[in-house]
C-alpha cells in the first residue's frame, strides 16, 4: 500500500511529501483514525530516504494532523477532520440505470433487530446450526491450502461436494443425478439466474406461481422475460391456466411458496405432459422439503420426468444457513456446458473451502443428523403454530394445510375485511414480525398472512398469536 | 435425510422396505460405499418400528447388498454395484440453451497440473499468501457466529469491509469513496456483470480494448450488448476509434490487459471528455496495479473524473488469492440502489465470514504488509523475465514496456513468421505454460506471447525462456 502522492524528484522532497499528505487530509482520502504507512515503507515506495518521510510526518505531527502512538505507528488525529472539505468533492449524478431497470433492493432480514415474536419467513434457526463442528471442518480445509490455490477453479464447483450432493438428492429426494449433472451455486437465486441467462431471450414468456416467490419473478423480468403469474389452487399450480407460449415454468411443487400446498400427483403429471408438448422447461425449486412432519413426500417432478425437461434446484440455505451461500442445480447434460459457461461469466466460480467443508459435513453423516434434529424442533413449532392459529385466529383466517417446510400461510376468511398489509406493518411496531400475503402477489392482492417458524422461539408462539389476534380484531372493526 | 421409499402402511412393512431399498440399489440412488440411515432414524421417518427396518436391513445384508461395520453403521457393499442398471435411466436431451447462446466454459487454470515452467497469466503466488494468519482470522470470525446468522444479509457486503476498502482505495489509489459507494462482489467478473445488468439494454454498444480481457467481452455480449473492440497503441486505448454510440467503455488503464501498457495522462483526459460529451459510462478495471516496480502510477480515471462517469473495479484476486472470490466496485450514488438490487437478484449476497476476516486483515495492516512483501518477490521475477526476454528472445519478440502487474506481453517482431498459438500449444507439451496473444484478440490475430510471473519459480525463468527460445526457432524455420 502506498500514498498516491506525486513527489518531484528535484527540490525539497520532504516538503513535497508534506504537501501531498496535507492534500490527502484535506480532500478526505486520509481520515481521522487512519494509520499512515511506516516511514520505512513509504520511503521505499517513493524512492526517498526514511529521514525525508520522517521530516514530513514530524511537521504534520507538530501541526496536530498526525500523532505517533508508541508501538502502533502514526495516525491521523481527530482534530485533522476538515468539516468543510473532508467529504471530498461531490460529482454530479450523471450515470443512470437503463430505462427499464425498475428494481430496488428488498429489505434484508438481517437489517432488523431480532423481533420479540419472530415469525419471519424463509429463515432457519441459527441456534440449531452446529457452529463448532462447522468451524472445525472449515479450519481443516483452510489448513489444507489445496482449496485456496492461486488459480481459478472449476465453475461447476468442488468435485467432492458435487459427489455428495448427487448421493444426497438420490436418497433423500429420489432425484437421480450423476456428479456432472450437479452445479454448485451461491444459493438458489444464482441457480435461477444461470438458467435464465442460458435459456431466456428477451421477450420469452416465463410462467411463475401467483402468489409466488418475488425474487424469482423479479429476476426473470430483469433478464428481459415476460413473466406471467399462474394461479395456485388446493392442488398447486393450475396447469390449465399456463400461458400457451411459456418457455420456462418456475414452480415449488413440494411446498408451494408461500402458500405451502403440495402439488398433487395428477398436477405433476399434467405439468410434465404440458411441458413436453410445448417444448418448455421446468425449474423445480425444492427449497425446504427436507423438513416434513406428517406424511410421505410426493415424488419430485425431476423423478417423474421421462423427457428431461426438469431442472431441479436445491439449497442449503434452509437445511443449514443462508449465510453459507450454497445451493445447487441438477440439470440435464444438454445444458451442462452452457450453465458452466454462464457461471464463469457471472462470477468465475464460488469459494472452494466452504464447499469442501460441506462435502465433509455430508460425508460424515452430519447433514443427515442436523436435519433430523432440526426437523424435530421445527415439528414442535409447526404444531404449536397450527394449533395456535386455529385457537386464536381460527375465526379470522383459514390456515392452508401444509406438511413441510418452515412456514405456514393463512388466508383471510370470506367476509373478513382486513388490510393485512397494514396490519402486518402495525404488528411490526409491536415486536411481531410476519409477512402479509399481498407481498407475494404480483397481480390482485390476496389477503392473508404468512408465518415463518424457523426462527421463532417455541415458547413465544402462543403469546405472539394472542397479541396478533387482538391487533387484527382492532383492524377488522375499523371500517 | 431419508430414503424416498413409499411404504404401504398395510401388509408386510419389512418386505416393502426391502423392496424399496432394492429398487434404490438397482437404479443407482444407493451406490457402493453409501451409508444407510440408522435403523432408528429410518423407522422414525417411515413411522414403523425399528425392528421392521432392521429386518429389511438384515435380509439385504444376508443377500450381500449391505454390510454392517461395527461402530460406523450399515453400508452398501461394493458387490451391490449393478453394472447394467446402476447408471439409471437416461433421459432424452430435450432442453437447449437459447439460440444465440454460444458460450462455452473456458479452461480453468486449476485443471492443469502445475507446469514446470509456469508462466500462466493472471494468477498470483499462493506460496506468498499468509495462510496461517488467514486461518486465524477466519476461525475468529466463525467463532463470532454473528457473521453466520440465520437471515439474509445486505447485498452490498459487510460494512466493516466496505469501510476498509473505502480507506484503502483512498490512500493506495487516491480514489475517493464513501463507504456507501463500495459494493463487494465475488471478484471483478461479478462487478462487471452487475454494471452490465443495470446499464445495458439489448443492442447497446459496449467498447472494449483489442486485444483485451476475453471474460469481459464475452460477458457483455452474453447480456445482449453489441461489443466493439477498440485498438490499443503505445498510449493505451485509441480514443479516436471509440464507436460513436458506445454506452459503456471497459478499460484497464493502469496496466492494459494483456499488453501491460499504462494509458497516458492525455488519453485519460481525452477518454473522460469523450464519455462526458456522449453521456457514456466508463468501467475502470484496476486489477493488479498494486504491484508496481519502476515508476509512480498515473492518477486513476476515477480520481481525474469530475463528471461522475467512472465506475472503479478492484479485486483481491491478484493482491491476495482468486479463491477468496472478493472484489469490489466503487460506483456513483446514482447507481447505488440499482447495483444493490442487481446483486440481490443475482445471488442475494456473498458469504460474510470471509468478508469480515478480510476487513480485519486490512485493519491490522496485514494487506499492506503482504503487498509490500509480494511486490518484492514479483519485482525480482519481473526483472529476471524482462532481462531473459531481451537476452534469449530479443531477436524474435519485442517486449511491451510495463511497470506493474503480474504479466509481460511481447509482440512478434516485424518479419517474423511464427504461429504463436501453435507454438504455445507445443510449449505446453514441454512443460512451459504461457499464453499466445491471439487468444486475447476478438478480431484479426496479433501474433505475440504473454508471460505471467505471479506463479513462476524465479530460478526456472532462465531455463524456461531458453527452452521456449529453441522451440520458437524451430517453429520459425518451418515454413
What does this structure look like?
The structure is a homodimer of 479-residue chains. Chain A is of the alpha/beta class and 479 residues long. Chain A is built from 14 helices and 16 strands. An eight-stranded mixed sheet of chain A has the order 4-11-10-9-8-5-6-7, sandwiched between helices. Chain A has a four-stranded antiparallel sheet with strand order 12-13-16-15. The radius of gyration of chain A is 28 Å and the shape is globular. The model of chain A is unreliable at 83-87 (pLDDT under 50).
Give short descriptive properties of this protein.
eight-stranded mixed beta sheet, alpha/beta, homodimer, 479 residues, globular, 14 helices, four-stranded antiparallel beta sheet, 39% helix
